[in-house]
Structure formats: structure tokens, C-alpha cells
Amino acid sequence: MAAVVAVLGGALTILVGLVAAPGSWLRGYVSEAGVAGLPLAGVYRAGFAALAIGVACLGLSRRTRVVAVTLLAAALLCGTAGAVPCTGGCPLPPFEVTSVGDVVHAAAAILGMVALAGAMVASWWTTGDRVVRRVSGVAAAFTVPLGGALGLTMLFAGRVALGAILERVLLVLAVSWLIGVALTTALRVDASS
User: Fold this and answer.
1) Which residues contact 152 (CB under 8 A, 6 or more apart)?
2) Distance between CA 29 and CA 85 in Å, rounded?
3) Considering only CA atoms, which of 3, 101, 15, 85 is closest in space to residue 52?
4) Residues 16-55 pLDDT 10s
5) Overall pTM surpassing 0.90 (yes/no)
6) pLDDT digits (tens, 9 = 90+) for 114-167
């Protein structure tokens, strides 16, 4: 249940930081809410820390080694993305001049989502729990192509509205999958006690 609480709490805290950031919360990268100097940047980054703890808790609860390892990697990368904020606008190459922090943040965020997608696919293939397998299969079926579309959009078009929409859809999918698997796991443990 700790994974459910941490993931949900972290996601809601990130959402508060995102909504409170100046400008429309539907534009730009989600990470822009964590830029140093913004009113709730610390709250936003704390949300990432809670989310990372929740992903780690879920990873520790999984019996399949590949799922556990990919979730723990995703947790480490999520924590890194939250701890290393990007600069204003979260610039990415090749369209904008970036700092080392921008590259570290973006790499951690992107690789964290890749690791999470890997955990979805691994859960789909290896988990004996029918509910987790189905939830993981559906999540992976949407996450992998949407993640690919987001990556191509960022690489070839740069900062566009489509990228912001795809990022938000991916994050909702990721959080939904994490909560679904964590809740299913918690309910199975409670039922067997």
C-alpha cells in the first residue's frame, strides 16, 4: 500500500506544482514547473521524490527480477529528474542551447520513462497475476507507440503543442499503471494474509 500512497501523493503534488506554475499548465514540458525560482518548484520536485519512492516500493514488491530491476532503475531516474531541475523552458538540443543540468534532467526523465515502459512489457510477459498482466499489456500497448511519437516529435519538431499533449498522456498512463499494479499487489497481499 506504501507504493499506492507514494505514487498517488507524488503525482498529485506534481500536478499542484504544474497548475500553480505561471502560464497555461497545458503548454510546454511538465518539467518547467520545477524550474528554480518558481513559486512551487520545491513542491513539484518533492512530488518527484515521492513518486520515485513509490516506484521503488513497487519494484521491491515484485517477485520477477526483471520487473523489479527495471522499476528500481525507473525510480532512480525519476528521482534524478526531480532533483536536477532544468533551466527556464527546459531547452533540448538540437533546437536550443542547453546546460549540463538540462541534459541530465532530460536524459533521466526520458530514460526513466523507457525503464518504466520496460517494466510494463516485462510484467506483461512474465507476471503470473492475470490482472497485472492485462493492465501491463494495455499500458505497454499505449505507452510504447506514444513514447516513440513523443521522442520523434521532440527530435524533429522541438517544442510544439503536440509534444506537450503526448507528454501529459504518457504521464497519466504511467501513473495509472503504477497505481493499478501497486493496488492489485496490495490487495492480493491483504487477501492472502
Assistant:
1) none
2) 12
3) 3
4) 888 877 777 777 888 888 888 888 889 999 999 999 999 9
5) yes
6) 999 999 999 999 988 899 999 999 999 999 999 999 999 988 888 888 999 999
Compute the distance between CA of residue 173 and CA of residue 119 in angstroms, rounded to an integer: 13
Close Cβ partners of 156 (under 8 Å, ≥ 6 residues apart): none
Whether the pLDDT of residue 76 is over 90: the answer is yes
Cell numbers 523489479 correspond to what residue?
68
Three-class secondary structure assignment of 21-79: CCCCCCCCCHHHHHCCCCCCHHHHHHHHHHHHHHHHHHHHHCCCHHHHHHHHHHHHHHH
Residue at 186: amino acid letter:
A
C-alpha cell of residue 96: 536550443
Q: How far is CA 20 from CA 34, 50, 123, 183, in A?
A: 11, 19, 35, 29
Residue 171's Cβ-side half-sphere holds a number of Cα atoms within 13 Å equal to 23
Domain ranges of the chain: 2-192
| Dist. CA 16–CA 158, nearest whole Å | 26
